[in-house]
Amino acid sequence: MARSGGGGCCPSMDLMRSEAMQLVQVIIPAESAHLTVSYLGDLGLVQFKDVRLPAPSGGCLIGLCDREFHATSDGFPSALQIREFATATRNCLLLNADKSPFQRTYAAQIKRCSEMARKLRFFKEQMAKAGVSTSSAQLVDTRWDFDELEIKLGELETELTEVNANNEKLERTYNELLEYNTVLQKAGEFFYSAQRSATTQQRELEASQSGQPSLESPLLEQEMSTDPSKQVKLGSLSGLVPKEKAMAFERILFRATRGNIFLRQEPVDEPVTDPSSGEKVPKNAFVIFYSGERAKAKILKICDAFNANRYPFPDDVSKQLHAVQEVSGKISELKATIEMGLAHRDSILKSIATDFEQWNHLAKREKSIYHTLNMLSVDVTKKCLVGEGWSPVFASSQIQDVLHRATVDSKSQVGSIFQVLNTKESPPTYFRTNKFTSAFQEIVDAYGVAKYQEANPGVFTIVTFPFLFAVMFGDWGHGICLLLSTLYLIIREKKLASQKLGDIMEMMFGGRYVIFMMSLFSIYTGLIYNEFFSVPFELFGKSAYACRDSSCGDATTEGLIKVRDAYPFGVDPVWHGSRSELPFLNSLKMKMSILLGVAQMNLGIMMSYFNAKFFRNSLNVWYMFVPQLIFLNSLFGYLSVLIIIKWCTGSKADLYHVMIYMFLSPTDDLGENQLFSGQKTVQLVLLLLALVSVPWMLIPKPLLLKKQHEQRHQGHQYTMLQGADESVGAELGEHHGDSNDHEEFEFSEVFVHQLIHTIEFVLGAVSNTASYLRLWALSLAHSELSSVFYDKVLMLAWGYNNIFIFLIGLVVFIFATVGVLLVMETLSAFLHALRLHWVEFQNKFYEGDGYKFAPFSFALIGEED
């Protein structure tokens, strides 16, 4: 059902019903397909369906795109030719579910786009490592060519990969040289100290012995001195081993060589960069002396197992000095080379960073275009593409303008064809929202997306949600705190929208206008409750009551006398602090919660009437809406009227007694609980109506549905005439199959379904009304918590007459107010208001079984997986 829009390019916004949608078909020449889909993505008002054209048997679409059209004066086919062509194409369309993504027409292009996206992610990782930030300038359409960009990215990736590989090799060599230099220093110290110790011992031996061996002389020395040919030649290995593995390394060496080695270790002062991992690792320098090739082989294997890097150490002192000088020179050369390589890499990354956002946007844009083109069907002649999709009715002229512009810009000789199709499919739901209404609509959509053109609870949620929140959060001091924090988000929304916020902050920023409305309503209800951080003020005039004498200051309100007119707005401040404050506020807020709940539930039932009228469902009007309205108001509507009468008359009637005995003893006299004349008769009539409305909801609707079904399918059985055309037979057979699919009518299932709905409503009328008492409970809890923090923290600290104690109490009061009342209580009241809308209000009329309109739009392109 289309609605007329307002003037200009943008029709008037309507949140009550979703936008009128239409199923459209576009037939695009192959040469202008890419540009057409690109322009449609800029427009963002078409949701494409996944369709395909099967290989035609008998020439279903062969020659359709080769058909010669007689052009009209504007160069396009006539409307009659368009309709014929679209009808012929539509009859050959099937779902595209049996084609895998790799069998689609543009699978190769999507693969190229994915490869470009991979390269861009590689560039982003490299820029993050190098600390290079991308340009934050706005995206400008520079019309990069896709093929040129692909070549450019490939060249940059190759160059950057080569630079990184060279830098890694240089870094590895540099770290190895640093380790080698460390080993030369530490091993040099070992050998120097050992040589000095050996020289000292040799001198001592020569001085103590007269040239003849004694029993105390070492046997090896005696043998070597007597037979030089039998001297043992020792080998050595030096290197670095991780410090955490040093003890195990030494133990394994000792066991593997049976103690026939000499190992010397010393920790390195500072952690060393490991050449393999590139991480800083604490290490020990070691020197191993061994004898024999078998021992050497074992030692080498153990070193490899413990990741001990080995480096050669010359025996000659002069060679040691030369090695130290050579390693130091190579280190300085490599350091300069590495710095030049890093500078070259940074220059490449900076050149990438200037255009990175443009390239990233283009890669995502192209991938989305080809993904959409894959949802279109290619004719066997490969000269045109056929696509179907949903679009709002108001967008028809815009889509046609886009198709015409794409045809002109692509210099195509054949124009695109646009056709509206008739269908029985359920269209998607599309509400045009702005930054203010979008958050409220998201609250409704979180429960379920509205069925197509179903009444939208979001219209009422804009007011009722923050109001019910404020009923539970009524304090105009706390409301001002919420308002100030929300105004900060609203004033800086342009800057914050472009920043990366945390999860919680992102949630608050998205719902800033919801919190804004909640704060305004909290100030309003706080003025009604007359509470500013639990402190009452005489903002609208003087209190209507005054003490009878000086002894009534701590008494009940019976010690007060009325000296002037009633307090003009909200609760009289004299109630706060009196002994009867809690009973008075309890009674007020409890009755107010029932009134608000019954009013909102009646609103939900009224919306079910408008839904039934809109969809022309008279059964729901007479056998759902009417009995539900009667049942709810016969019980709880009547209770609401009694509350108002009691407030107006000042009667002391017990409403609990009235409602209980209305069911238990409806014929008994009310006595002192009577609020108006004829109340007993009214109660009997209302009770009778409530009892009648239950079978009224349960029985007639299933019977009438069965009757309608039988009438609808009378005379629908038929047989095919002989000699009928195959295409006609196939089409009629299809409709015949469809009618047979819907012939089955399970009365038992329909009756059970209606029984469940009836029981749910009857029991829900009681439980939902009781559920609204959460408004009273949370409002009372918020007020009492605020009063406790004020009296037992701030005022208690003030009573000590000590500035230090007062400052401590003030800090505790601020943290308690912010943490408990402004954070936890806000979240609690938000969730309870959410529940009241989802369960108590929306279940009266809202089905929420639709699906959201998801148009092909470049504005919705997000981060790729």
UniProtKB/TrEMBL annotation:
InterPro entries per the UniProt record, alphabetical: V-ATPase_116kDa_su, V-type_ATPase_116kDa_su_euka
Polar residues compositional bias, start-end: 201-215
A GO CC term assigned to this protein in UniProt: vacuolar proton-transporting V-type ATPase, V0 domain
Main location as per UniProt: membrane
Subcellular location: Membrane
Top-level taxon in the UniProt lineage: Eukaryota
Keyword Transport included in the entry's annotation: yes
TM region positions: 467-491, 512-529, 592-610, 622-645, 681-699, 803-824
Annotated stretches, region: Disordered: 201-228
GO biological process: vacuolar acidification
Membrane topology label: Multi-pass membrane protein
Family: Belongs to the V-ATPase 116 kDa subunit family.
Protein's name according to its UniProt entry: V-type proton ATPase subunit a
Organism of origin: Eleusine coracana subsp. coracana
